[in-house]
Design brief:
Structural class: mainly alpha
Number of helices: 2
Order of helices and strands: HHEE
Radius of gyration: 18 Å
Largest sheet: 2 strands, antiparallel
Distance between the termini: 41 Å
Strand content: 5-15%
Helix content: 55-70%
């Protein structure tokens, strides 16, 4: 898998792997390989989402400087 794949491409690939594993009609070795690839994809997707969340938690002040957005749970 290359880093050039988009988030959506990786998500689609993960969905295909999950679907294939859910069917349960694959040889063990193939299922294990798919599972390992799925774990890698899931970690990459989580990292992408975390980076997006961190980016969105920044705001630009009046002087053009980025600062953390103060989030509250109210």
């Amino acid at each position: 898998m290359t880093e050039a794949n988009s988030f959506e491409d990786k998500l689609k690939q993960l969905e295909l792997i999950v679907s294939a594993l859910e069917k349960g009609d694959r040889p063990l070795e193939s299922a294990l390989t798919d599972f390992q690839q799925g774990v890698v994809l899931a970690k990459e997707l989580q990292r992408t989402l975390k980076n997006a969340e961190d980016t969105l938690a920044k705001v630009m002040d009046d002087e053009g400087q980025l600062s953390d957005l103060a989030l509250t749970n109210e």
